[in-house]
Amino acid sequence: MSGVKLVYFNGRGKAELIRLALAYIGLEFEDVYLKEKSEVEKLRSDGHLLFQQLPLLEIDGKRIVQSGAILRYLARRGGIYGNSNDESTRIDELFEGTRDFYGPLLGMVFRPEEDVLKDAKEKVLPRYLPAFNKVLEETGSGYLVGKSLTIADLGLIETLLVLVEYLGDQILTGYPQLQSFYKNMTSDEKIASFLLGPHRHPKNDQTYVDTVKRILY
């Protein structure tokens, strides 16, 4: 295999954070979009999808599945996974928290948008915004762990980007640490470049939903 390839659908889903991580650690990559059911079936029959799921990252002569495994691989390779076992453990803890925070948003467009956003405002924001604001207040560095960006920070900014996109930045009112975090992360040169670049995907739309359903169901 030559080059780095991320195999997924032409949308955000579970691949967008991988795209952000690849861009942040400076790895050029190609988005490979699946469009037909036969393409996924071939990947499965060739044994490339161990658990029959996407995304799939082709890198360094290997194929990696499971989004969490892919992201940790990239974090280790890019030096954004902490400087000690204790730091890596804390990063894991907070990173998994960002995935729980982001999880309900994966239903966007697959469920009525108003239902997803209603659940987010009533159940998700009150649970996670105070928690992450508190962590940032305790570290005092502007980052979730230590004094530099880690994969946990990328996981949090991905979630906040989607929430602000749909609900506006007023959702961060009353959470000063998160307001500063959002401003600093979106001003970061590498993140800002990704957000304006070709690998950043727009909101999932009905075309994306129809493609995913046609291929997987």
TrEMBL record:
Keyword Ion transport: no
InterPro entries given in the database record: Glutathione-S-Trfase_C-like (IPR010987), Glutathione-S-Trfase_C_sf (IPR036282), Glutathione_S-Trfase (IPR040079), Glutathione_S-Trfase_N (IPR004045), GST_alpha (IPR003080), GST_C (IPR004046), GST_superfamily (IPR050213), Thioredoxin-like_sf (IPR036249)
Record keywords, A-Z: Transferase
SUPFAM superfamilies: GST C-terminal domain-like, Thioredoxin-like
GO annotation, biological process: glutathione metabolic process
Family: Belongs to the GST superfamily. Alpha family.
Protein name: Glutathione transferase
Natural source organism: Patella caerulea (Rayed Mediterranean limpet)
Lineage: Eukaryota, Metazoa, Spiralia, Lophotrochozoa, Mollusca
